[in-house]
Amino acid sequence: MIATNTIVYLDNNSTTAIAPECMAAVAASLQDNFGNPSSKHRLGEAAKLKVLAARAQVAALVGATSPEIVFTSSGTEAIHHAILGALALCPDKSHIITSVVEHPSQLALLQHLEGQGKRITYLPVNTCGQLNFDDLSNAITSDTALISLMWANNETGALFPIAKAAQIAAEKGVLFHTDAVQAVGKVAIDLSQVPVDFLSLSGHKLHATKGIGALFVRKGRKLPPVLFGHQERGRRGGTENVPGIIALGVAAELAMTELKLQSEARVAALRDSLEQKILALFPWSSVNGAASERLAGTSSICFGGIDADLLITKLDKAEICVSAGAACTSTGTEPSHVLLAMGLSPEQAAATIRFSLSRYTKMEEIDRVIEVLPELIDNLLAEAA
Ligand code: PLP
């Protein structure tokens, strides 16, 4: 077993530690709520009530209503459901607009659809990782079935102005999906005010368990299922992951409290401190997307000509966990598509480390990084010389 209490965990965009409250709720659910929510007896009813309660908690976090939330197995499934469902809703249309910096879980599906004859427009971003809204408006045609843009970028934390993009889509009568996997629980989201049709989220990015996600489907949108079955009112087949759903509900409620307490401001202060100290220690380093509005806890830093993979290994030996770009895709050889799209060279992308904090991150942990980094970087520079 790995002793996690000494580990400095700054890889929260890859996955988060489960909140103690979620862990307790999962344990209680495994013990007491093992019934199938479809069963008509007391254990089934009890599980069904827990699922209902969690649905209301998740809905409240994003300003939705309970019937608008469909539980899925992951953010990936929610994204795929939204995209495939939107295409099924618009059988005469075959064009989708997205951006070049989307998560691989979305890009992989879009590339597959391209192979099947769909037309995909990948909007570019500027050096801050931001879209040009004229590009978005100009890309929309009468053949456009869906616009799908992420709320927050997993690598840089850059926030797309989703309210504005969704408004453009609504004015042109085009369906709009947002991958809000990295945003939910970290930025205030009120879907009663933002005209998105579909929104995807994932439990393990907000201190719930892995294997649970949700898709918001706006009332009135009859999104066909991808998995057929009677569960989720016919919208997503498969016996519900009751412990995961309960954990997501608790995580949503915790996140709401933290948003009200403005905990993200504290996280942003830690992130700023980390960045300022790194920039002071290594004046040749730079923060990717620094000029963009960003998630409070994400910092993507380019360490000049350093090999990020080697630095990650050295940091790991010092019990500090970070990522290079997105962990889901980092094979160690492919430069990040997000950083390349922002104009970084392959060398700069390969020299970039992503630090991602959470509300559990402490100042001592930032101090620990700052304490060990100079020696590790000196070693790397000496080894490379
Ligand atoms: N979208 C973004 C922006 C992500 O960061 C991730 C996971 O890293 C996903 C989608 C996929 O979510 P999941 O891991 O729940 O499938």
From TrEMBL:
Entry superkingdom: Bacteria
Database matches in PROSITE patterns: AA_TRANSFER_CLASS_5
Keywords, alphabetical: Iron, Iron-sulfur, Metal-binding, Nitrogen fixation, Pyridoxal phosphate, Transferase
GO molecular function ontology, one term from the record: cysteine desulfurase activity
Catalytic activity: (sulfur carrier)-H + L-cysteine = (sulfur carrier)-SH + L-alanine
Domain Aminotransferase class V: 8-369
Pfam families xrefs: Aminotran_5
Top-rank EC class of the record's enzyme: transferase
EC number annotated for this UniProt entry: 2.8.1.7
Reported cofactor(s): pyridoxal 5'-phosphate
Family indicated by similarity: Belongs to the class-V pyridoxal-phosphate-dependent aminotransferase family. NifS/IscS subfamily.
Purpose of the protein: Catalyzes the removal of elemental sulfur atoms from cysteine to produce alanine. Seems to participate in the biosynthesis of the nitrogenase metalloclusters by providing the inorganic sulfur required for the Fe-S core formation.
Name this protein carries in UniProt: cysteine desulfurase
Organism name: Methyloglobulus morosus KoM1
